[in-house]
Structures are given as C-alpha cells and as structure tokens.
C-alpha cells in the first residue's frame, strides 16, 4: 500500500501552517541565543 | 507489516490509537511538527535555572529574607523532575506502546502543563512541597512520557530515514530552552513568578495538545513510495523484533546503555560547568557576559548536532556514527587543554562546539540504533528504559567535573589548569564507550519474537 507523498491530499496550507507553528518560535529562540552569543566575540 | 495500528487501546474515543490512523493521502511530513509541538515544550526543562534566582527572592525582594527558599532547596526541583523523567520513560514505555501517541501526548500535556499550574500555586502560597510535586513529580512524568511519545510513530512514518525523523523531534527538545528562557524572563517581568508559571502551564498545555491533535499513525501496510522493508537482517540491522522485556536480557541493550551513559556523562559535565570553565581557563579574556554567550552557543550546537548526526547516521550507520563521536571526542577533549595553553579562544570554542554537537547527536541517534538492533515494534518502550542511562549520567557528569576541579584547586593547581585532568578523564570515559560500541553485535535469534517482520 505504498503511497506517493507528492500525490497526497493533505493541504499544503495545513502543512506550512504546522511547520510555521513550530518553526517560528524556534527561529525566534535561536536568534535570541545568537544575539547573546555575540558577546563572546565582542571583546 | 507490523505497525502501531494493530494494537488497540480498547477504546474508540478521540484519544484512542484507532482515531489517529491516517486517511489515504495524509502527508507524513505533518508528523514531525506534531512531535516538535511536544518536544519544544518539554525542552523547557533545560531553561529551568532562569527561575532559581527570582524564586529565591520571593519574600525579601532584592535581598533574600530568612524565610526565602535557598538555592540548594530550589535545585531539588530540577533534580526531582529529571528523576521522574527517567522513571516515567522507563516504566511508562509499555503503556505508550499500548495506547499510542495521541493519548500519550495528551497525558504528557496534562501532566506538564498541570505541573506548572500546581507549582504556580506553590509559589503563590510559598509552599515548596507544592512546587516539588507540581514541576518535579507531575512535570517530570510529563517530560518522560512526552519525550518518548513520538519516537516510534516517527519511525513508522519514516522507515527509510528513522535517524532523521527522530533527530528532528529530539532537536526540538534541545531547542525548547531557547524559547523558554527569554519567554520566562518576559513573563516574570509582566506577571510575576507565580503568574509566569500559570501562563506557561496554559501555553504548554495548548501547544502540546496541538501536537496530540495533528499526530497520526500510518494505516496497516503503509510504506513510503519505493521503500521495500528488508526481509533479511543485515549486519546490526535486524528484520526481526525483540520484546521490551527480552531486550533487557541481551548484552546489546546494556552495551548501548553504557554507550549512551558515557557519551552523555562527558557532555553533560561540561555543559553544566561551561560558563565557569571558560572564565577560569581564559581569565580576563572571557567575561561573565561572554561566558553566557559561550553557553548559548554550546546549546545551539547541542541542538543542531541532534539533527545533523542523527540524519547522517541514516547514511553511514549508527555504529559508525558512534565511533566518530567517541574517536573524535577523545581527540577533542585531549586537545582542549592545548587550546587553553596557547590562549586560543577560537579553538576552545570550536572544540567544545563539536563536542556538544556530538553530545546532542548521541541522544538523537540512539532511538534509530535501538530500532536497528531490536526492531521497530517495541522500540518506544526499549528507548524509555534506556533513558535511565541519562539519569545516571546526569549525576555522574557534573559530579566528576566539579569534584576533580575542586580537588585540583585544593592541591594548588592554578584555576586555568584545573580542568586539564578532567578533560583527560572525559577522554578516558569516551575510550571506554568506544570499546563498548565496538563490542556491538547483532542480537541472538533466540531473543527474537516469532514471525514478526520489523517493517514499518
């Protein structure tokens, strides 16, 4: 019962939304950490 | 094929396994975000220390009052949570296998979010036992169940790339602290410490429930296009299944237990002391603020390593991946004192960045290693039991680093050189891990379940 991902009917919008839901907070956290990490090379 | 879909939970409610079976056309890439919804939340535990100082000044304000909670007393909150994480993962694994991912995620959401609420009442009424019970016991159980909840589901959706799939989820656990730390500080400034716990409890509950809502298990017989499940074992990769109770009777389980424990011991000891170590090894060069940046950078590599190494292991094999962790780790730990001697901050940061990437990689690659060796069917429960190695390493690593440092300083060794012996001992631990990994062989057929192909 193999399926092709490219022929799935799960909406692309739903997929993007799901990834944005987890990706945006994670990206925000990473950026905040990188800003803090800049202090290591500031001096 | 043997999928999660066959073992019912005895219920047809929304939380049941049956209700999570994906309809035809479901895109499997919807499942990693479901797992990340859980792991990004429970990864908060790595950022719990942001609460310590504010919680130690609840009565006194700027200065601690006699009735205020001491830092050692507050330290127990995190320790209790980690102990219950290990216990829940070890003893809850079989239940997770039975009820499926949605009920497990929802239970984890209730425990973790509810734990914050109970702890919030403890802070509001200044009763520490309530905080221990809330965040430590309830939250810790939520941590353990949440951690193992998506592992098997991801592997059944991605039998062609199990390392990458679980690496994504476990990367979220490493990244959760990046979100929790600034968010917690912001909330404490807005609504106070107890208020922050209440708000975080609600946010985490909702966020994890989104994961429980969108998670799906594949229908019986599903396989990704072009994927043919192996019918014969090849090297360490078995086509059979081993029952969780039987797995504990194999030498392979305990070898992997040792592999994980030693890899984590080396990394966690350094991570906990990274700030102090960097300042003492480079006095006057690395300031307190720069050291905080160093810790943040290490955490970032810890997170990225989870995805990178677990994904890489799909191509080079799990045993080879761990060989790299141990062999490269030995070289890097041995080279750290050299970086200190020549005063090279860049080399010091580079060495530790790679070391911490392999620390995270060790966590993220182990589920796929277990799947290879014991099959897919009970991998969630076996993974849960293996996580007791984490609990042991969580005590062993920091104790080793702290004790040896203090002994060295008491013996008259300058602070800048007090970590040299520690680094060599860490390299020695990794050498033992290397040997254990080399001893890994396929599980004897007598441990296999009868006629259970390990396809997903």
UniProtKB/TrEMBL annotation, chain A:
<keyword id="KW-1133">Transmembrane helix</keyword>
<feature type="transmembrane region" description="Helical">
    <location>
        <begin position="16"/>
        <end position="35"/>
    </location>
</feature>
<protein>
    <recommendedName>
        <fullName>Oxalate:formate antiporter</fullName>
    </recommendedName>
</protein>
<keyword id="KW-0812">Transmembrane</keyword>
<keyword id="KW-0472">Membrane</keyword>
Automatic annotation (TrEMBL), chain B:
<keyword id="KW-0472">Membrane</keyword>
<feature type="transmembrane region" description="Helical">
    <location>
        <begin position="286"/>
        <end position="309"/>
    </location>
</feature>
<dbReference type="InterPro" id="IPR011701">
    <property type="entry name" value="MFS"/>
</dbReference>
<feature type="transmembrane region" description="Helical">
    <location>
        <begin position="345"/>
        <end position="370"/>
    </location>
</feature>
<dbReference type="Pfam" id="PF07690">
    <property type="entry name" value="MFS_1"/>
</dbReference>
<feature type="transmembrane region" description="Helical">
    <location>
        <begin position="104"/>
        <end position="123"/>
    </location>
</feature>
<feature type="transmembrane region" description="Helical">
    <location>
        <begin position="69"/>
        <end position="92"/>
    </location>
</feature>
<dbReference type="InterPro" id="IPR020846">
    <property type="entry name" value="MFS_dom"/>
</dbReference>
<feature type="transmembrane region" description="Helical">
    <location>
        <begin position="194"/>
        <end position="215"/>
    </location>
</feature>
<keyword id="KW-1133">Transmembrane helix</keyword>
<protein>
    <submittedName>
        <fullName>Major Facilitator Superfamily protein</fullName>
    </submittedName>
</protein>
<feature type="transmembrane region" description="Helical">
    <location>
        <begin position="169"/>
        <end position="188"/>
    </location>
</feature>
<feature type="transmembrane region" description="Helical">
    <location>
        <begin position="253"/>
        <end position="274"/>
    </location>
</feature>
<dbReference type="InterPro" id="IPR036259">
    <property type="entry name" value="MFS_trans_sf"/>
</dbReference>
<feature type="transmembrane region" description="Helical">
    <location>
        <begin position="382"/>
        <end position="401"/>
    </location>
</feature>
<feature type="transmembrane region" description="Helical">
    <location>
        <begin position="29"/>
        <end position="49"/>
    </location>
</feature>
<dbReference type="GO" id="GO:0022857">
    <property type="term" value="F:transmembrane transporter activity"/>
</dbReference>
<feature type="transmembrane region" description="Helical">
    <location>
        <begin position="321"/>
        <end position="339"/>
    </location>
</feature>
<feature type="domain" description="Major facilitator superfamily (MFS) profile">
    <location>
        <begin position="1"/>
        <end position="445"/>
    </location>
</feature>
<dbReference type="InterPro" id="IPR050327">
    <property type="entry name" value="Proton-linked_MCT"/>
</dbReference>
<keyword id="KW-0812">Transmembrane</keyword>
<feature type="transmembrane region" description="Helical">
    <location>
        <begin position="129"/>
        <end position="148"/>
    </location>
</feature>
């Amino acid at each position: 019962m193999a399926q092709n991902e490219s022929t799935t009917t799960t909406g692309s919008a739903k997929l993007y939304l799901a990834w944005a839901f987890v990706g945006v907070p994670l990206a925000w956290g990473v950026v905040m950490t990188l800003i803090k990490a800049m202090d290591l090379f500031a001096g | 094929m043997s999928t999660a879909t066959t073992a019912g939970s005895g219920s047809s409610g929304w939380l049941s396994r049956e209700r999570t079976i994906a309809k035809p056309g479901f895109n499997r890439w919807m499942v990693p975000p479901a797992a990340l919804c859980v792991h990004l939340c429970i990864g908060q535990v790595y950022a719990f220390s942001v609460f310590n100082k504010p919680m130690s000044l609840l009565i006194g304000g700027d200065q601690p009052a006699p009735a205020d909670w001491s830092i050692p007393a507050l330290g127990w909150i995190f320790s209790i949570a980690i102990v219950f994480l290990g216990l829940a993962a070890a003893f809850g694994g079989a239940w997770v296998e039975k009820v499926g991912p949605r009920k497990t995620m929802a239970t984890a959401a209730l425990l973790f979010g509810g734990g914050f609420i109970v702890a919030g009442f403890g802070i509001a009424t200044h009763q520490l036992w309530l905080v221990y019970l809330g965040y430590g016991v309830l939250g810790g159980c939520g941590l353990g169940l949440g951690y193992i909840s998506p592992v098997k589901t991801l592997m059944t959706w991605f039998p062609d790339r199990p390392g990458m799939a679980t690496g994504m989820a476990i990367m979220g656990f490493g990244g959760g602290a990046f979100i929790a730390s600034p968010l917690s500080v912001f909330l404490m400034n807005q609504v106070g410490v107890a208020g922050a716990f209440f708000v975080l409890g609600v946010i985490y509950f909702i966020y994890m429930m989104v994961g429980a809502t969108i998670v799906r298990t594949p229908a019986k017989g599903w396989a990704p296009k072009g994927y043919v499940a192996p019918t014969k074992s090849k090297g360490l990769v078995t086509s059979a299944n081993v029952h969780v109770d039987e797995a504990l009777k194999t030498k392979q389980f305990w070898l992997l237990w040792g592999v994980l424990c030693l890899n984590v011991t080396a990394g966690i000891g350094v991570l906990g002391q990274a700030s102090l170590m960097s300042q003492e090894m480079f006095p006057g060069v690395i300031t307190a603020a720069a050291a905080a940046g160093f810790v943040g950078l290490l955490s970032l590599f810890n997170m990225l390593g989870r995805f990178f190494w677990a994904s890489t292991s799909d191509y080079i094999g799990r045993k080879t991946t761990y060989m790299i962790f141990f062999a490269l780790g030995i070289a890097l730990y041995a080279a750290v004192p050299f970086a200190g001697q020549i005063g090279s901050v860049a080399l010091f940061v580079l060495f530790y960045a790679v070391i911490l990437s392999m620390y995270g990689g060790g966590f993220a690659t182990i589920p796929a290693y277990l799947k290879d060796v014991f099959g897919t069917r009970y991998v969630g429960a076996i993974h849960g039991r293996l996580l007791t190695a984490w609990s042991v390493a969580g005590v062993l690593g920091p104790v080793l680093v702290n004790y040896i440092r203090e002994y060295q300083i008491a013996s008259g060794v300058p602070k800048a050189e007090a970590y040299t012996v520690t680094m060599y001992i860490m390299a020695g631990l990794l050498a033992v891990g290397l040997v254990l990994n080399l001893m890994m062989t396929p599980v004897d057929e007598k441990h296999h379940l009868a006629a259970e192909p390990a396809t997903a």
